[in-house]
Structures are given as structure tokens and as C-alpha cells.
Specification:
The complex is a heterodimer of chains A (about 120) and B (about 110).
Chain A (H helix, E strand, L loop, with lengths): L2 E5 L3 E2 L5 E8 L8 E7 L5 E8 L4 E3 L7 E6 L4 E6 L8 E8 L5 E4 L3 E5 L2
Parallel strand pairs in A: 2-11
Antiparallel strand pairs in A: 1-3, 3-8, 4-5, 4-9, 5-6, 7-8, 9-10, 9-11
Chain B lengths: L3 E4 L2 E4 L4 E8 L7 E6 L6 E5 L3 E2 L7 E6 L2 E7 L8 E6 L6 E2 L3 E5 L1
Parallel strand pairs in B: 2-11
Antiparallel strand pairs in B: 1-3, 3-8, 4-5, 4-9, 5-6, 7-8, 9-10, 9-11
The chains are: A mainly beta (about 120), B mainly beta (about 110).
Chain lengths: ~120, ~110
């Protein structure tokens, strides 16, 4: 069974960096698919942030392009989100998900709530 | 960016009703349109892919239709467990975008 699980701090101070890990079991992230980060803001708006592909290439939402980095550790079957210079507007629940270009996000993690506050 | 407009924002329903939720795209997304259900404190669950293709394990009362810019998610006989927020998402062009959601409530 494919499972994704996010982990990371639930509280980040403004201007600092947000770092999250997505651990994948049941599927090897280098075998196929794109591996995305998606967030849901208070008020229910959803935003796709970016993905790292099975080959290691990345694509980011232009709204975040200067602040975001998605990397991976293939030996641990994990991928990571780093979002720099956070503000209170980055407060959201962050999800990792598996998908394809054109296709749906078919597996999701349970989500991790991150609050940006001093 | 492709803007997806979902309507209505909230829908009050009676169990057993047949209902339709709308998702309209600001430009054509062909059939690269997917529907998700999100219950409180849960992660989104894929309901329909490529506008009308069913997903294994999803009840047959859920169906999707449409192409281009106009899409519909139908629930034939709403059940109490269907009370959720429903999102559409397009995969036709980057950045991938989501609709603002339709919240299903009990009347």
C-alpha cells in the first residue's frame, strides 16, 4: 500500500524558513510520477506549490518561485519542501501528494499544519 | 494561470437528492480536470479523474462530465457521509490550479 507522510515543525517564525519532509512507503519515488507539495489555507483555498519528478527535475508555482525549493533523498525515499522568508500568509496545512502532469493527485499524505507566528 | 470557478460555494441538501456541482475554467483544459472530496480533518480523496473516469473504490453514485471549460460532478442520491468540501483541479497547464470548493451541508 502506498503511503505518504509529512513531518516537520508546526510553528515557524516570520522571516525564517519552513522545512518539511514527505516520507513515502510502498513505492519508490524514482520509479515514476511527480511528487508534489500542495497547501490548504484557512478558508479552504488550495494551492499547488511545486513538484519534483521521478527523474529529479522540478517545477514550481511562479507565485513562489523565488522562495521555494523541492529536493529529495532517494536513499531514504523522501522528498522535501523548503520555503524561505515565510510570513503569516504562509500559515496553512501542507500536503505531499503523488501525481502526474495532466493527471490527478492519487495519493496524499495526512497533512501537517504549519503556523507562522512570532 | 487557469482560474477554476466552482458553484455554488455552499449547497444544502437532503439525503437521497441527486445534485450537481459545477466547475468552470477560464480557458479550455480539455479533459484534464479532476475532482476531489475532502472531509473535515482528512486529506483530499480522488473521486473522478480526466473529467469522467471513475476511480476504483469510489461509490458509483459519483459521476463526472464535461470537457473544455464546463464540468459537472454529480451525486446520484446524496448520503450523510458525502458531507464534505468538493474541489476540482486542472492538470492541463502549469501552475496546476484548484477551484475554491463547494461545501455540501445538510438542509
Amino acid at each position: 500500500e502506498i503511503q505518504l507522510q509529512e513531518s516537520g515543525p508546526g510553528l515557524v517564525k516570520p522571516s525564517q524558513s519552513l522545512s518539511l519532509t514527505c516520507s513515502v512507503t510502498g513505492y519508490t519515488i524514482t520509479s515514476g510520477y511527480d511528487w508534489s507539495w500542495i497547501r490548504k489555507f484557512p478558508g479552504n483555498k488550495m494551492e499547488w506549490m511545486g513538484y519534483i519528478s521521478y527523474s529529479g527535475s522540478t517545477n514550481y508555482n511562479p507565485s513562489l518561485k523565488s522562495r521555494i525549493s523541492i529536493t529529495r533523498d532517494t536513499s531514504k525515499n523522501q522528498f522535501f519542501l523548503q520555503l524561505n522568508s515565510v510570513t503569516t500568509e504562509d500559515t496553512a496545512t501542507y500536503y505531499c501528494a503523488r501525481g502526474t502532469y495532466y493527471g490527478p493527485k492519487d495519493y496524499w499524505g495526512q497533512g501537517v499544519m504549519v503556523t507562522v507566528s512570532s | 494561470d487557469v482560474v477554476l470557478t466552482q458553484s455554488p460555494a455552499t449547497l444544502s441538501v437532503t439525503p437521497g437528492e441527486r445534485i450537481s456541482l459545477s466547475c468552470r475554467a477560464s480557458e479550455s483544459v480539455d479533459t484534464y480536470l479532476h475532482w476531489y472530496q475532502q472531509k473535515p480533518n482528512e486529506s483530499p480523496r480522488l473521486l473522478i479523474k480526466y473529467a469522467s473516469q471513475s476511480i476504483s473504490g469510489i461509490p458509483s453514485r459519483f459521476s463526472g462530465s464535461g470537457s473544455g471549460t464546463d464540468f459537472t460532478l454529480s451525486i446520484n442520491g446524496v448520503e450523510l457521509e458525502d458531507l464534505s468540501i468538493y474541489y476540482c483541479q486542472q492538470g492541463n497547464s502549469l501552475p496546476f490550479t484548484f477551484g475554491s470548493g463547494t461545501k455540501l451541508e445538510i438542509k
